[in-house]
Amino acid sequence: MDITNLNGTVWLSNGVEMPYLGLGVFKTKEGKEVVDAVTYALDAGYRHIDTAAVYGNEEGVGVAIAQHAVDRKDIFLTTKVWNADQGYDSTLKAFDASLGRLKTDYLDLYLVHWPVKGKYKETWRALEQLYADGRIKAIGVSNFLQHHLEDLFQTAKVTPMVNQLEFHPYLVQQRLLDFCQQHQIQFEAWSPLMQGKAFEVPLLQELAVKYNVSVAQLILRWDLQKGVVTIPKSVRRDRIISNADLFNFSISEEDVQKIAALDRGQRVGPDPDNFNF
Which positions are annotated as binding substrate (predicted)? Predict the structure, then answer.
């Protein structure tokens, strides 16, 4: 990953450019809160917005994008099919419903939100059809571990271009990261700041002082240096701006490794091998 500025991108396996920094809107309230957050991000130069059907705020994301001066074609927009909608026909319907709420006629990236046993292969087949129809620029998965990917490969005609996973200093999953890189699947982080718990880690506090940055900036820069696309969530204008101020410093390789060594396989979210929703 060539880390240059907020407009920097990675090339997905099909040649689509994906901005390596974006705004996530998990738990951002529908209505004014999400409209404001997306507007702040676009004003600050972000060009990547990540939502999901289950977040319940696709409509507000769509409003913010539609009313902003930035052209839709210059915004990389992601949403995800929820578990209750998985399956071939139901995924096609869910996709149309998401497009309607987002007020757009295409998506830049559509993800299978979780590997629902017995359903994700048919869900993937629906994504492949939507991709073949030109309604999505790229398709991918979320929360898929290596064995889920290997199982999907058995029937997939198109390899996922992205895998969005929980990723932070306490959950590095280096083997999975390596596996995705080997298969040209772009790794993307959700919950990069460990739902705020990262701010309490002494090593991260020390290194933030060393580089004269915030703990959040340190971690987000670390994500990028690990080759991982990242989508920190905030609803505050100052935090959204601060989270994008990552390009006037670089973490030494030694410190990148020190942060990675914090890994303890500890999740702040659900386990992809053991979820019931």
Answer: 113
The active-site residue, picked from 20, 40, 46, 55, is 55
Would you say 113 is a known binding-site residue? yes
Per the structure, the complete domain to which residue 210 belongs is given by 9-260
Which amino acid makes up residue 267? R
110 is catalytic: no
pLDDT along the chain (277 residues), means of 10: 96 98 98 98 98 98 98 98 98 98 98 98 98 98 98 98 98 98 98 96 98 98 98 97 98 98 97 96
| Residue 145's CATH number | 3.20.20.100
> Is residue 197 assigned to a domain?
yes
Q: Can you tell me whether residue 189 is helix, strand or coil?
A: strand
Q: In what order do the strands lie in the sheet with 136-142?
A: 23-24, 48-50, 76-81, 107-112, 136-142, 162-166, 186-190, 229-230
